[in-house]
Amino acid sequence: MLDSAVNFRTQADIKEQAFNVIKSYGLTPAQVLNMFLTQIAKTNTIPLSLDYQPNTKTANAINELMSGKGERFSVDSFDEFQQKIRDLSK
């Protein structure tokens, strides 16, 4: 028995794209949300792949640091960190 309502806000373009996909499966947004919440409740996990896949630029930077190349630095505060990042990006 459905006896609880959920209301949330999202970006209009994301909503439109998602609803089109949902409709292509012959489902309603409410059905999909109920399936999603049921899966979370049954498995005690979020049924999404949250694995981080870096883009090429980030992967290259990671590989450079792992191979001992690249500039390493340490800072004592977040403000110093932000300034260092700004300086490096110039």
UniProtKB/TrEMBL annotation:
Keyword terms, alphabetized: Toxin-antitoxin system
- Would the keyword Lyase turn up in this protein's UniProt record? no
Domain of life from the UniProt record: Bacteria
The biological processes this protein is annotated with in GO are: DNA-templated transcription; regulation of DNA-templated transcription; single-species biofilm formation
What terms describe the molecular function in GO for this protein?
cis-regulatory region sequence-specific DNA binding; toxic substance binding
Q: What family classification does the UniProt entry report for this protein?
A: Belongs to the RelB/DinJ antitoxin family.
PANTHER family (UniProt xref): ANTITOXIN DINJ-RELATED (PTHR38781)
Q: What is this protein called?
A: Possible RelB protein
**Organism this protein belongs to:** Aggregatibacter actinomycetemcomitans serotype e str. SC1083
